[in-house]
Amino acid sequence: MPAEEVTVQLGRRSYPVRIGPGLIDGAGAAIAPMTQRKRVAILTDESVAGLHLDRLCRSLDGAGITHAELALPAGEKTKGWPEFSRAVEWLIDEKIERRDLVIALGGGVIGDLAGFAAAVLRRGVRFIQIPTTLLAQVDSSVGGKTGINSASGKNLIGAFHQPTLVLADIDVLKTLPKRDFLSGYGEVMKYGLLGDAKFFGWLEKNGPDLAAGDTALRQYAVAHSVQMKADIVARDETEEGDRALLNLGHTFGHALEAATGYSERLLHGEGVAVGCALAFELSARLGLCSQEEPSRVAAHLAAMGLPSRLRDIPAELPDDESLIRLMGQDKKVRDGKLRFILARGIGKAFVAEDVDMGAVRQVLAESRAA
Ligand SMILES: NC(=O)c1ccc[n+]([C@@H]2O[C@H](COP(=O)([O-])OP(=O)(O)OC[C@H]3O[C@@H](n4cnc5c(N)ncnc54)[C@H](O)[C@@H]3O)[C@@H](O)[C@H]2O)c1
Ligand SMILES: O=C(O)C(=O)C[C@@H](O)[C@H](O)[C@H](O)COP(=O)(O)O
Ligand SMILES: [Zn+2]
What we know:
- By secondary structure, this protein is of the alpha/beta class.
- It has helices at residues 27-31, 46-62, 81-93, 108-120, 134-140, 178-195, 197-212, 215-235, 250-259, 268-285, 292-304, 320-327, 357-368; strands spanning 4-8, 15-20, 39-45, 66-72, 101-106, 126-131, 145-150, 153-160, 165-169, 340-343, 349-352.
- It folds into two domains: 4-175, Rossmann fold (3-Layer(aba) Sandwich), CATH 3.40.50; 179-368, Up-down Bundle (Dehydroquinate synthase-like, alpha domain).
- The strands form three sheets. It has a seven-stranded mixed β-sheet, with helices on both faces.
- Ligand LNCXM5UN binds at residues 139, 143, 145, 154-155, 187, 239, 243, 246-247, 250, 331.
């Protein structure tokens, strides 16, 4: 199966996203023309290092590129100040210069942290994303949102810093645990819900085979998702308008992640899945769409084995007022007021102001009830 390429069109900062099998083996050849000094620093996590780092190092060796590697602990807790400052100090110790390259090899945690480290190191060095989870391939490696979490909320510390190249090697998804694959699927489904009803229908038909490992279906889903994200980012790089659509499900999802301590109790894509279901429930309650739409979303999530209600989260959650307080740190808040991504139907999302918080409370209460 040949690789595909999507370009994120941002003028002088445009970059290609390559999607296909075997791309890590070809990484050295792809990167060599981009470095004068032939020196890179690789940030990864301990699990990914054990599975895929050797292959990347061999490919870089073959292209005459010297490399240093740092593997951070796997998991969302790494995306905070302690591991971030460790990574930046390490890059400084390794004497990574302005014209060198930082490579993020891993999922969204490593991509977000390494991208932010590259953004601030010597006031900005270039970086390459080699995403190894479904979530990172379809979403976090593209678009330049980088950063870390604060105890008060997700991604509250960060910068927009676009990568120079993204290599999404579909083969690496074969080693991804099922739960992490499904978490990434939450973001894949989000694209259908926010702007492409036909793609959502395709997912309803093909989602189970995609999860079972069909490589051709996976490549199609990744390329389609990346193209949708690239189009939105090209229109609105820094989220003044349309880009907020990519936040469908995140006002709820991020609050739930903070409420569960950024832990294994709720992965990011699981929070997005519940958040999308809640956003559709809220849309129906506000009379924006019929009840059939949220029912269809919830049915698909259940068919895929993803959570859709608060009661599906295997953890005690704080009360509704605490969740609403956590939502108050959302980056879409304007003049102290929450904005939500709601929908007039599947594929018809929009940014909503002045949402009735009584309706939000009712939706949260219903989603908790057995
Ligand atoms: N910047 C953005 O636009 C953006 C978009 C979406 C999500 N995010 C962020 O991404 C993060 C979630 O990313 P994630 O789901 O990739 O989590 P992750 O990076 O924690 O990876 C999930 C798990 O999979 C393991 N793993 C990674 N690749 C593997 C592979 N090929 N085989 C086996 N195991 C592998 C990791 O070690 C980890 O344990 C969140 O912090 C979220 O906020 C950012
Ligand atoms: O790229 C975007 O824009 C997104 O909103 C994609 C989201 O899936 C992602 O989780 C993002 O990090 C959330 O952004 P935030 O600004 O709400 O932290
Ligand atoms: Zn997300």
